[in-house]
Amino acid sequence: MLEELRGTLAIDLGNTNTVIAFQEEKSDSPILLEIANLTRSAGIIPTALWHENNTNNSLIGMQAINKLEQTSNDMYFYSNFKRLIGNPFERYSKGELTPEQSGEKFMRILWESIPREFIIKRLVLTAPIDTYKGYRKWLIDICSSFEVKEIALIDEPTAAAIGMKVPFGSTIMIIDIGGSTIDLNIVRIEGGEGRSAPIAELLKFNNQDVSKISKQKLRCAEIISKSACKIGGKDIDQWIVNYFLPDSKDERNLKIAEKIKCKLSDANVNNEQQYIASFFIENNTKKEFTISKKLLEEILVSNNLINLLNTLLKRLLNEARGKDYKINDLFSIILVGGGTQIPLIRNWIGYKIPDSKIDFPPPIESIALGALSLTPGVKIKDILNKSIFLRLFNKRDQKHFWHPIFYQGQTWPTEKPFELILQASQEGQFKFEVIIGETSKKNDFDVIFENGIPKLAEIQQEERVVLWAKDPLFIEIKSPTVMGKDCLKLVFWIDEQSFLNVK
């Protein structure tokens, strides 16, 4: 009988790879878990699902990858679903599963596959910065059913920053290019000299707030600024395939493109050295194409990747400057995510931010390992990535307008609720509609989809408000109202789980 190991499990659900790491209670050394037939290497599970309709035959990780390679039919193969979870604008074009269902099957099979000798007392989850609010709720709802006493949630770049064990008071920039997102984050590690304060998010702990009972020293991360976009390594794979085979929809070609991309990201490969890419075409046959590091860079530039990175960096630094932080204040720049291995991107960083110390932790595993560094019971105080508005009606102008509730950059959970007193716009009004929206960011470049292929398109710098839901919330007034008189008081606040509440 194997010895039981009690401790914390970290799951970093990625669009390409999912990383699982474990730290025993009595140990300071985390380990990357190996699960037979699921992990590609220690701790790394391909984020892929094989699900045959009307059966219980569901496979994940390397089992799903191997199943795909054994057949010419990719109908039952699901990948690239993380980016679509909670996304109201994009859906799957094949199969019977929604992105949420695909992700749930993946997470549940993963959880059930954890070797029995590991007793999970605490679960730490990670999420990208620029996720739709539905993604966090989805993740929390699924994992809340797991048999574990404590669950914590942390932004992926912040986890990487905490895991670097930088000196107290240091300010760090994290650049995280994963399978489906690019996240840029400037974080200040607080604490030391008795000044550490609990500023983090705890989701579950026996229904108690651990920050009040923990005797351990708390480590804190203050998020100074952040900037993100829903594009990443998976999209680069698609660009490579699309360059040679514009009409290809074969999932196997994406795996081939990924392998070629990794080979060309090797620092020892020169610009002219050519590799053969054998892509699937009609009738399950293959066609060979040649690709070099120089050609890969041309593909990335032609798809506006560098222009997008410039936009994200500019937004990040502008927000930091508004809080009196400058480039010279950075202790180091931390590169995580497989996409930061691409030489073109590393050269871009060196050009845009010269003379800065750059740290290269393990690109794929660093977020999960950093998540394990969270002290039990610590809470993360985050900032809003978008402004939130309430739609109101101006009786005088006879038109609707958006009234700000919370602004981008404001911390949450909210320390003080926002109160708003409304007047009736007509005599005897008995019903008020509550319509919430958030700002879409001012981007020079944004992600669009053409025939299912993600591209970066130049857009006008306009800020608009996007509705959270199609149907408004209606509030009924029991007593008669008088037009122009105060009749309804609304109180808004953002709770510890990032949900907006109204009373």
Main attributes?
single chain; alpha+beta; Actin, Chain A, domain 4; Substrate Binding Domain Of DNAk, Chain A, domain 1; 3 domains; seven-stranded mixed beta sheet; globular
Topology:
Elements: E1 5-12, E2 17-24, E3 31-32, E4 44-46, E5 48-51, E6 58-60, H1 61-70, E7 77-79, H2 99-112, E8 118-127, H3 133-144, E9 150-155, H4 156-163, E10 171-177, E11 182-190, E12 202-205, E13 220-229, H5 233-244, H6 251-264, E14 274-280, E15 286-292, H7 293-302, H8 305-321, E16 330-336, H9 343-352, E17 358-359, H10 366-371, E18 382-383, E19 388-394, E20 399-406, E21 411-412, E22 418-423, E23 431-434, E24 436-440, E25 445-450, E26 453-458, E27 464-467, E28 473-476, E29 486-494, E30 500-502
Parallel strand pairs: 1-8, 8-9, 10-16, 16-17
Antiparallel strand pairs: 1-2, 2-3, 2-4, 5-6, 5-7, 9-12, 10-11, 11-13, 14-15, 18-21, 19-20, 19-24, 22-29, 23-28, 24-27, 25-26, 29-30
Structure, described:
This protein has 503 residues and is an alpha+beta fold. It has helices at 61-70, 99-112, 133-144, 156-163, 233-244, 251-264, 293-302, 305-321, 343-352, 366-371, and strands at 5-12, 17-24, 31-32, 44-46, 48-51, 58-60, 77-79, 118-127, 150-155, 171-177, 182-190, 202-205, 220-229, 274-280, 286-292, 330-336, 358-359, 382-383, 388-394, 399-406, 411-412, 418-423, 431-434, 436-440, 445-450, 453-458, 464-467, 473-476, 486-494, 500-502. The chain has three domains: 5-165 and 197-220 and 364-380, Nucleotidyltransferase, domain 5 (2-Layer Sandwich), CATH 3.30.420; 233-302, ATPase, substrate binding domain, subdomain 4 (Actin, Chain A, domain 4, Alpha-Beta Complex), CATH 3.90.640; 384-502, Substrate Binding Domain Of DNAk, Chain A, domain 1 (Sandwich), CATH 2.60.34. Strands 1, 2, 3, 4, 8, 9 and 12 form a seven-stranded mixed β-sheet that branches. A five-stranded mixed β-sheet has the order 13-11-10-16-17, with helices on both faces. It has a four-stranded antiparallel β-sheet with strand order 20-19-24-27, with no helix packed on it. Helix 2 runs parallel beside helix 3 and helix 5 (233-244) packs across helix 6 (251-264). It is globular, with a radius of gyration of 24 Å.
